[in-house]
Protein: Clan AA aspartic protease
Organism: Campylobacter hepaticus
Amino acid sequence: MLFLLKKIFPQLFISIILKDKKNILKTSIYRANKLVSSNEKTFDKSENLLEYIKNLSKHFLFYYTALFLDAKEQGLIPNTNIKDYEHFDIGKISLKHILLNNALIYTATEHIEYYNELFEDHGTLDFLYSPFALLYYNIQKERQTDDKIILYGFKQNSLLTIIISKGTTILYGDFKTFEQELNSNLNLLKENNIQTNNDTQIVDNFDENLNQEINSNTQEDHLNTLDNDLNIKEFEEFEHFNNDMEFCRYIISSIEKFYNDDKYLGVFINDIILYSESSIDISAIDFLENETFLEIKTKSINTLDLMIELMQKELK
């Protein structure tokens, strides 16, 4: 009966990424497994996003929500023995784990409790997706042969998730969050430009009798504004390059850790496949290829779409 109702009534799928001042959600409505409509919205505050979900979900009999887990306290153990936690320098914290093929992925219990409480008053949270789960889902879709060992990387904003696998068998996992110092510097640069513009406006309004003199400086002010815009653009390009280089350096360090593990003596990585929401600087890719002597393939990915796709798969 429930199966028939789901075919008749529309189903709402909501995927969410919570970030400071940029909380994003995507809603997709399906009827009889066919996409009816899709929409993406951004909110400055998570409270506004949750209130939007609460109001929207009232119009649907069937709706499901998924949240991307970006907590620092998470990781992967390449076997199913829970006691091996102590061998992976995890620390003495309460953990929750789930099975991922031949591995365990874990996170701190406090994060799960926090998100469940956060969504409690705005509907339920049905899925909490670790980046490891999303990356492994893509690994399965690659359908690689069992004779090749491949390093897969998933770059999502300031997060990097790594899985090394032989076919679909997981050999190694790593997770890293990168501090966005350059973002802070960029915001400071923008704020300084805004302050400069505000100061200029104050001078403009100080004495209307100076209009003639101010007008004579209009062209110079315009050139200064263009120069500021160019500085911001150049800084953004530098930030992008620097971030991508940091990601690539960490991939190299993960490869070194993998090769230094006695379990994998004589085992060598054949290729690298990187999934990313944004383009990766070609110079950073060249650097990674030159350092590893491996072929690098990059593939575009949308985390929100991926969560909706995986929700549908798990609900079948």
